[in-house]
Design brief:
This protein has helices at about 60-65, 75-80, and strands spanning about 10, 20-25, 25-30, 40-45, 70. β3 and β4 (about 40-45) form a beta hairpin. It starts with 8 loop residues before the first strand and ends in a 10-residue tail after the last helix. By secondary structure, it is of the alpha+beta class.
Length: about 90
C-alpha cells in the first residue's frame, strides 16, 4: 500500500525473506450496510483478547484460514445463541 491505503500487514524487511508478513490486523470485519445481518467478523485473539482468558484462541484457526463468523443485529438471534449475560451496574 501507500499513503492512501490501510496498513493491512507488516513485513520485516530482513533477509532471507524480506517480504514475509510478521504483523496483521487482529480484528477483521466485512460490513454490508445494505443488509447489516450479512456482515461478518473474526478476532484473532478471541472474545476477550486477554491471553489468560480461556477464550483467547477460540477464533484463531478461523482467523488464520481467512474465515469469518456471521454478525447479526437481530436481538432475538443474539439472545438465543448467548452463553450468558453480564450486567454492569454502577454503584
Amino acid at each position: 500500500g501507500g499513503d492512501n491505503t490501510l496498513l493491512r500487514g507488516k513485513t520485516s524487511g530482513a533477509e532471507p525473506e524480506p517480504f514475509f508478513n510478521v504483523h496483521a490486523a487482529g480484528y477483521r470485519g466485512v460490513y454490508d450496510f445494505a443488509d447489516p445481518d450479512s456482515s461478518v467478523f473474526v478476532i484473532a485473539t478471541g472474545q476477550s483478547g486477554h491471553f489468560l482468558s480461556r477464550h483467547y484462541d477460540d477464533l484463531g484457526q478461523l482467523w488464520r484460514r481467512g474465515e469469518y463468523i456471521p454478525m447479526s443485529l437481530d436481538l432475538d438471534l443474539a439472545r438465543a445463541a448467548a452463553v450468558g449475560v453480564t450486567y454492569i451496574n454502577p454503584e
